[in-house]
TrEMBL record:
Originating organism: Paenibacillus pectinilyticus
Membrane-traversing stretches: 16-37, 279-299, 319-342, 373-394
Chief location category: membrane
Family membership: Belongs to the ABC-4 integral membrane protein family. HrtB subfamily.
Protein name: Putative hemin transport system permease protein HrtB
One GO location term (cellular component): plasma membrane
MacB-like periplasmic core domain ranges (all copies): 18-239
Amino acid sequence: MKVISLLWRQIWHRKTLSLLTICSVAITAALVVFLMLCSQGVEQGAEKGYGPFEVTIGAKGSASQLALNTYYHIGAPTGNIHYTVLEDVRKNDLVDAAFAMTTGDNYNGFPIIGMEPGYFLTRYGAAKQMAHGTLYGKLGETIVGSYVASSLGLHVGDTFVGAHGLIKGLDEDADGEDGAEEEHHHTFTYTVVGILPPLMTSDDRAVFTTLDYAWAVHESQQSGTKDITAILVKPKSLVGAQSIKTTFAGYNNVQAVYTSKAVADVVNVVDKGTQAVKFVTVICVVLAAGSILLSLVAAVHERKKDVALLRLIGKSKQFIWMSLMGEGVILTLVGLIAGLLIGHIGGYLSREAVFAYTGLQMQAGTFLPGESLLIAITLLIAVLASIGPAIQAYRVDPLQLFRS
């Protein structure tokens, strides 16, 4: 009799308990994989989220809020600063490149962002060409992120009108928007001239247009002044970044922040929030280990006679130990494989919903660095959970058992 055949019969004999064990392991593994995908998305988003722009300049307020709004298009801006600040930044010898950004409107919930065209070349390089169409060049022309285009079915040549505010359906400013400006929003038409390729950043879910769109749409509110939301600065060196920050932080109603530090502060908050989820995951792992242990303990009394018989007919110790411990390992391995597949499939199916609400890109289907550790730990738990019942069954005296 082959050991695999014996193990299969043992598992099938207790199919209900075996199925519950497999399910508990699969659910635990799937949850851990999904958390890994989210964690990887946060790390990649933090790393790729701001590109080479080590310094960000905007209105005084929360540094994290400024970084989130500028690079991740989340939340409201801290306010506006005058265009002359950008002119001063570009005159600084320590600045390699600087681009202004304006925001405040949306199209179907996606932010409309005024951005100087040079931003795309500086951040993504010449390798990232337009998927379709060309870059905008005049007022009213837009390019849209790949996610926006696929979600709304936009194509080159389509036209649309925006809405005031950063939230879909918000047609009035918190300070009150006069009727003339509101009417202007509904008559100002945008034309799609290009669609960006997938960039794997939050720019995939944004609409970009010329910097002066905000001055044209909000001209009644701005009274002819030129205000911008933020300045993205690429310094020539890290030492230069410190000098740039110090210089422009001294301006009235202006803050200059290290982008990496502001993003790191947000990531730290997210990491603290995931501790509770990790605690639940640990509980699931303990329950899965307990399920394996209970499954094997429940089978000990049934298997004592089988083990005694195997010993009497002269089966080797290796064969007997494999028959005793193999069941737990096989159940765990099947549950583990199922869990890995469920975790990646779940991540793949939910990736668009997660990206739409959080901006996180989940790379489902790729082997994660932590998965090898997950496999090793899970199989180790299976072996440890199998040792106790196996020793208990093996220690039975076969002659004494049959005499009784």
